[in-house]
Amino acid sequence: MAAPFDPKTFTAYGNAAAGHEGVLSDESGELVIKPCTAAEVSFYESALTTHPEFAYFMPRFMGTLQLQRTPPTDPTPLPGDNAEPGMRLKGKALETDQCIVLENVAAGFVRPNILDLKLGARLWDDDTKPEKRARLDAVASSTTSGSLGFRVAGMRVWQGEEASATKELLAPVEGKDTKVAELDQSENVLVFNKFYGRSVPTEDALSALRTYFVVPKAGVRPAAILPVVRAFADEVEEVLAMLEKKESRMYSASLLFVYEGNPGALKEALEAPPKSVKEEDDEDEADEEEDEEDEVPAKKSHALKVIDFAHATWTPGLGPDENILQGLRSVLRLLRKLETELAGSTDAA
């Protein structure tokens, strides 16, 4: 059984590719503590009790905490936290003491490469004020959110052991030269903020996925990443097939991709014998009976989760959520296209 939480040990969570400010992590790095709404808690609880097949693709829900919103113990600004006035790179922290406690999907990876794809052309729910609806619709109509039903909300891509000479990437946003990516020199991670996704035209959406998956500087080449891309495509297909049968509305939800960016660790994880769902369930039960010191964490090649349910609800009688399904179909089509491209490359032959 885990020790009680000590909020004094919480620190700013540094692996978020997108989302709101104010997300924390516990001392072990295995949990994420995120400010939330009552609606998001309700959606997690209802998924666990009445939609377990969907809950499988959600981060594991550990419960809630009430915290006094004081600055975290680590005040160091993270790469991408600084921007020109009026050019916020992440969503404003929610003004609430209620937090949801979730598994850290990026835990257990040596070098987690993270991609957040925001789903849907419509990004607001029925309670959203008209001015915010207009603003979100304007963003959607000028980005791949409108044309494809998804856009890159953020990425974190490890650039290898050697110091990278990657220059800051700039793109015109609202008439200014705005950073869309910058290097976190402490970990040699290239951090792409929300303006990167807004600058990607429809015809370059596949190129954006390629930037995430193929990282020659880090030794992640087509042959190495092909099985991961194939596995992600298979899992997106599962999520799509499941949600085609569900009646829900999930505005501004995201697909979260994480894969092992260290080529040696990735090779080791891919060569490990696969586990069945039953074996994983048996291990989960055994974990509750063993001391944490005796646990040997399994090596992971990748993880896919659906996240961000502040504007999500089950809607019996209204049919499937075509808004989110459009995005999932586009993501699946591009992943299959990338899979074919990687399989046909000379490196993957």
Automatic annotation (TrEMBL):
<dbReference type="GO" id="GO:0046854">
    <property type="term" value="P:phosphatidylinositol phosphate biosynthetic process"/>
</dbReference>
<protein>
    <recommendedName>
        <fullName>Kinase</fullName>
        <ecNumber>2.7.-.-</ecNumber>
    </recommendedName>
</protein>
<dbReference type="GO" id="GO:0005737">
    <property type="term" value="C:cytoplasm"/>
</dbReference>
<dbReference type="GO" id="GO:0005634">
    <property type="term" value="C:nucleus"/>
</dbReference>
<dbReference type="InterPro" id="IPR038286">
    <property type="entry name" value="IPK_sf"/>
</dbReference>
<dbReference type="Pfam" id="PF03770">
    <property type="entry name" value="IPK"/>
</dbReference>
<dbReference type="GO" id="GO:0000824">
    <property type="term" value="F:inositol-1,4,5,6-tetrakisphosphate 3-kinase activity"/>
</dbReference>
<keyword id="KW-0418">Kinase</keyword>
<feature type="region of interest" description="Disordered">
    <location>
        <begin position="269"/>
        <end position="299"/>
    </location>
</feature>
<dbReference type="GO" id="GO:0032958">
    <property type="term" value="P:inositol phosphate biosynthetic process"/>
</dbReference>
<dbReference type="InterPro" id="IPR005522">
    <property type="entry name" value="IPK"/>
</dbReference>
<comment type="similarity">
    <text>Belongs to the inositol phosphokinase (IPK) family.</text>
</comment>
<keyword id="KW-0808">Transferase</keyword>
<dbReference type="GO" id="GO:0008440">
    <property type="term" value="F:inositol-1,4,5-trisphosphate 3-kinase activity"/>
</dbReference>
<feature type="compositionally biased region" description="Acidic residues">
    <location>
        <begin position="279"/>
        <end position="295"/>
    </location>
</feature>
